Every structure is written in structure tokens, then in C-alpha cells.
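Input chain follows. Return C-alpha cells only.
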Amino acid sequence: MHIETSPINDSSLPAWRRLALATVLGWAIWTLMTGSLGWQELLAGLLVAALVSFLAAPQLALLDGLIVRWSLPWHALRYLAVFLAALLRSNLDMARRVLSPALPIRPEIVRVPTRMRSDFGRLLLANSITLTPGTLTVDLEDDMLEVHWIDVGEESDREQRTQAIARYFEDYLLEFVE
């Protein structure tokens, strides 16, 4: 038995696949939130997920950058773990800065190149950067992000540190998003 491991999207997902993907994801979220495996709950969740997916169909084109394959849940969960670890580290770093009498900050807006090709990938990257304290995505244009950074550091390693802002998340995002 051969399991397809390549992406099912060449440049975009067909509308029915986007709808099916959104329905399955919505149903999974419903099931996790209700905590019940009773057939009534599962059926209600499926109906609600299908209805919401149908009503949101025009906006589902955003999912075109998603690389749908069997390993998608694994890669998404791995990215979530990496993101949560970065969130914890940056929160602790911001707390240290705020509590320091010297207030060690050197704020600046930096341009950060991205390898993400799809709108969905760039959106996930920009939001991941914004949600980690100390950085805020100000603008997104083509393959460049403008990020307000609370501490750009010394001039000598600024370029390397600037590229690391996106690279850290991109390495994991590129496993399931273009």
C-alpha cells in the first residue's frame, strides 16, 4: 500500500478540498472542546463544522498555502510546541527587561526577509512574530517583513540576529505551509 506523501496542492487546493479540510478541522476542534464521543455530539459537531465551513467558503482560499499530507498534524503540533517555547522564553526575557533598573532596550524597526511563499505562510509567520513579546510585525510586503524589535542588539551581530527572527519559525512552518 502506497501512502501519498507529496503535497496535494500544486498551486491551490480545489474548493471542495478546502471545504473538506475546514470541516474536518472544525469537527476535530468541536470534539476536543466538548470532550464527548457520544454519537449525538459527534453528529452535531459535524453538522456545525460543515455549516460554518460552507458559510466561510470564500475565505477558505487562504488555506491554499497549506501542504496537506499525512504528516500535517505532526508538523503542526511540532510547530505549536516550538512556538509555545519561544513564547515562554520571550515572556521571561521581557519580564527581565521590565524589572531591570537599566531597562536594557534598543528598539528599532528592521526588515526581515522571509522564505514563505504563500499568503497563509506569511500570515502565520507574521502572527507568530507578533505574538512573541518583544517583536511586532508592522508591515508585510512580498517577501519582506518589517518588524519592530525591542532590542536589536549590537551592530556587529545585528544582521544575523535579524534574519534569525523569521528563520526560527520558518524552519518549522515550511514543513507544512508553502
